[in-house]
Specification:
The protein is mainly alpha-helical. The protein contains 20 helices and five strands.
Amino acid sequence: MSLSEPDRSPAYSVFISSFYLLILLFLSIYFFRERTIMPDTSFQLFELLRNDHFSIQTGRYGAFINQVLPLAVARSGGHLKAILISYSLTFTLLPLAIFLVQLGPFKNPKMALVVVLFSSLLVVHTFFWVQSELITACLYLLLGWGFVHTRNEPIQWHWLWLLPLLVLGLITHPLALIPHIYIGIFFLTGTKNRLRSGVWYFTLAGLLIVLMKWSLLTIHAYDATAAGLSQNAFLRFYRFFEWQSTRQFLSNCLRLYLPFFPLFGWIIYYYWRSGEKAKLALFLSATLGYLVLVNGTYSWGGVIFHMEAFYQILAVFLALPLVFDIFPTLTGRWRSVAISLLLVHSLFQIANTGRFYKQRNRWISDVMNTYQSAGYNKVLLPVETVPMDTLLLEWGLPYETALLSELKKNQNTFSAVVNRPDAPFKPWKMDKHVYLHTFGAIPYSELNRLPYFNFRDTALYLEVRAAE
């Protein structure tokens, strides 16, 4: 079946995919606290409200799309709860919008299904840690590829919007180049696919954009640090199964990502039996090479939602062979059953994992209620008393407690900071008119002009002792 042929899958596949995304919208509202009272999310939302502007971090410019709706709600005078709900919703509205564009204007139901599988196959903790710019970058690229690979004629004036979209996707995260190249090679490989100039140009344009970025722009310190960690990953590939990250990934494949190994084996079997050795080599080299890169870079294991955001690229590697090569060989009934099982599994894992993030929010609420009932609105918690297996990352706690206390409409905004001996905020600890956060302090004067916070407590931060 050529790439240009219309998809013959039954309407049920489109229906179940649409229904899945609508359920995600519902869950985005139901779990809005769990999705926004999180380290990076609460920090970016806090900065958005503080500056009344987009909160773009480490040059991830494509993240603006996810901040349009909450910023509009904030500027219209919306309540904080409405802002948080809109922020939670926008991360599900984006894949839904791209899914509908693929179905409608692009008339490309196959790429629409790829978008759904990308948003489901390895999505559990990243449903709650929503603001991964890598995921947003991939959605930009899937939108562009959904148009490019269906074109039988040369792409001309369409470059006026395709090129900015491609730039936006590739500058939003440095790893976005990997799925971009994979998709391009996939569409240019195998006996079933025809070579088209648009696929070549779009693939090579991505390479050129990244080369220009590396040559002309200063690499942000955050990306430079990650690049430094990854330098020796492939040289240490022989220790792959010794890395804690690999062990965690394999364990999660047996607990959270149950379809991964069956799909991995199914794709290998199909390409081997069909004689498509080039596709088989592409799939294996991309999947195994990417696992070596990610697990070698974060060999100590990392935080589960952070690692999962990286692993979501694997869903692109899985989805393309499934949608374009394997599913078309199945009858409509079995194709629908396969898609349904994958999406039901995803919803089950998300709903089940939601209990953990509700427990996480309960712990933060308990801390806030305990100290505010005793008359304290500003506390420094010793790191020894903080359950890191629940909190996961400590640096976001000041922003999380501030937002959560305002959601509860407390008289004073509550602030809790994890206290370490070398904490950067120590020079401001004796200042009564500042809001402390993990990396420094913000004067009350910058915050009390906002309608969302009420920093009036001029007492010193209560420095809790480990024995208390």
